[in-house]
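input
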Amino acid sequence: MMKWNKEIWNIRKRFTLTFFVIILPFFFLIPGVLYFLARNGISVGTVTVPITVTFVLIGLLCFLLGYVISFFLMRNVFHPLEEMSRASRQIARGDYSAQIDYQGSIDEIQTTIDNFNFMARELNSVEIMRNDFIANVSHEFKTPLSSIAGYVTLLQDPDLSESERNEYIQMAFFNIEKLNDLTSNILQLSRLENQNALREPVRYRLDEQIREAIVLLEPKWSKKNITLDVDLMELSYTGQSALLFQVWTNLIGNAVKFSNPGSSVAITLRQYHNDITVTVSDRGIGMTEETKKHIFEKFYQGDSSRKEQGNGLGLAICRIILDLCGGDIHVSSEPGKGSVFTVRLLSPEE
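output
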C-alpha cells in the first residue's frame, strides 16, 4: 500500500510539473503569436485552420518539453531529495548505516550527497566505537568486581587458616587496585578526549621530570629486582609538564610490569637540534606484529599475558597526550626480546 501511494505521489508531481511547464510557455508564446499576426495585418477573427494547427503543434511541443523537463527534475533533483529525507529519518532513528546512491548528473547535488554519505559513515564509525567502548568498560569492570566478590565470599569461611585468609585479602586488594586504576584511566581518557584548550606551556627540566617518574615507581621495580640503566641528557623543555609526566609514568611502569624479575630497563633522553627523543626499552615478553599494530588502541591488550597485567588504556592515553603536545610515539618489539618505545618531541625555538 505504501509503495502504491508513493507511485501515485510521483505521478502527481510529474503532471504538476508538466502543467506548469505548459502554462508558462503558452503565457509567453500566445501574446507573441498575436503580436506577430497583428504586425502582418492578420486579424485574430480571421485565423485560418493552418494557424490553429500551429497552435496545437506548439501545445504538443510544450507538453512533450514539459514532460521531459519534469522527468529530468524528478530523476536528478526530487528523487535524490526524497532519498536524503529518508536517510535523514533513518539516522534520526539511530541507524547510521544509511547511504544514498545518486545516478544523476548535477554536480552540486552529487557533492551534497557525497558529503551526506561521508557524514553517515563517520557517525556509524563513532557509534561502533561507542558501543565497543561501553562493552569493553563493562567487561573490564565486571572482571575485578567478580574477583573481589569471590574472595570476600571465601573470607566468610570460619575454617580458613591464617595464611589462606591473608592470601585472599591480598588478592581482593589487588583487584581493588586494578579497579581503581581502570577508573582513573577512564576519567583521564575522557578528560583528554574532550580537552579543547591546553594550559599555558611551562619551562622545566625534562630530565628531572623523568627521574621523578622513576622515583615514583621505585616500589614496583625494586619489588621485581629490576636494574635501571638511566642515561638522561640535561635538558630544559617548554611544554605541558603535567601531561608529559603521565606519559613517562605509563611507559616506565609498563616496562617494569612486562619485564622478567631480575632483568633491566633502559631509559634515555637525547636532543638532536630541535628533535627531543626519549626511549624506554625493556627485555620483557615483547609483542607480535599484530599486537604492535593495535597497541595504542583503547582497551587493546594483545595476548593473555598482557590482559592479566593491565586494562589496555595506558598507551592509548600516551598517544592522545603526545598528539595534544605535538609529539609522537613508536614501538619496536619482538616476542621474547622485549620492546622499545620511542617518544619524539619538538623543542620550541627560543
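quick obs: The two ends are 74 Å apart (CA to CA).
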